[in-house]
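Input record (Table S2, row 488):
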Amino acid sequence: MPLHTRTLLEAKAMLAQGETTPTALTAACLARIAATEPVLNACITVLEETAMQRAAQLEAQGNPNNLPLWGIPVTVKDLLCTKDAPTTCASAMLAGFMAPYDAFVVERLREAGAVIVAKTNLDEFAMGSGTESSAHGPTCNPWDAQRVPGGSSGGSAAGLAAGQAFGSLGSDTGGSIRQPAALCGCVGFKPTYGYVSRYGAVAYASSFDQIGPMARTVADCATLFGVIAGYDGRDATSAQLPAPDVAPALATKSLQGKTFGVVKELWEGGLSDEVAAACQSAVEAAKAQGAKVVEISLPHLQYAVATYYVLASAEASTNLARFDGVRYGLRAQGEHDLVGMYTASRSQGFGEEVKRRILLGTHVLSSGYYDAYFQKAAKVRRLLLQDFQAALGQCDALIAPVSPVTAWKKGEHVNDPLTLYKMDMLTLGLNLAGLPGVSLPAGLGAASGLPVGVQLMGRAFDDIALLGMANALEMALPRLGVPTGIPA
Ligand code: GLN
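Output record (glutamine complex):
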């Protein structure tokens, strides 16, 4: 069995038993990157040299302190600041930007002994659902290179499915961890808002953004979560909680005594037949594992897409104001006055989707429209949170599809942003409520043969219980096998 197809926990066990080494694992992932990148374009920066040096250093030191990720190759989405590699957010605005510090989660990965092998591709500033709006060019889906990998953390998901690394960190503002994981056939976990520090993550919509792990199994995701979670004083919204013990999640093997809520609104309308069928079998699998299933309604969910795009765009327009060619970002040449320089820099630096969101956000925040849009959306957000709280009072987790369809063809929706926004309908409600959610492969679609994801959503800061339920459910779901669109 080739090294790159192992899970993170298998690789860790092999390291502990001396069956492999940090340099062998790192070389295997780098070789895999070299073999698959011509098809995938999942990485913006590959760290061949620093990764091999770091692996050799870890190998020489051994692992006397039992570091949880000692010698494990991982990737991180290219909106997480790293001192030793550019952080571009897939934008011309930040081409070549070297952050003076590491993001909190990157610090944690390094302290845990991980080897960062690449920084992965994304939609520009994490705005999108297909990794098509990247200044670095689109990423392809490893199951079919004509198709999108999902987004915005599409590079992380495609790379994991292709064996480029054993784990990755992404960010989920409206679904960007769970949806690409679903479309590429891997596992993605969006923690409760505040459980993982956002320090050093370039902001898109600060009250939604959450960093989280992606991997090939739930147990691998839980292991990464145990490394990156916990209090950080440099993020004002960081919860005062220690890093959680993930052992109970790994030990949960049954759903006996658990109740799953099937959210009516998330199963009605818009789902393709194959997605509905695969997710329905996941519900049956949950029952077979002992779960009781009840139907639940979230009445305000119908407003989630509109609410999200008002609020997230508003926050984005504010956050992206710093990229003006003076404080941060590309500076246009040849302009002779300040306003001309700002205008030219922002026109040249940002892509179309980012500009669309800045315009929308500025509009909903402008004095004539603030009450009508921004304030109204903030109120609906609260009502939706109350819906989720009431629902999760009646069950232990909610179960739903992640994306209404399997991976679509590249270019199919690029001129139709509203269709793409509506595709987020199944994921972004959870971000409005700040709750945790995990997406895992439900099987391959009967018509397309492409991965379908199912998600579990849980109570605030009950992330370990949620991961435990996902771990038990995963055992009852079919294995997807090897992606068909890349070199073996
Ligand atoms: N697709 C959603 C958007 O475009 C979510 C993106 C994300 O989670 N970063 O805003």
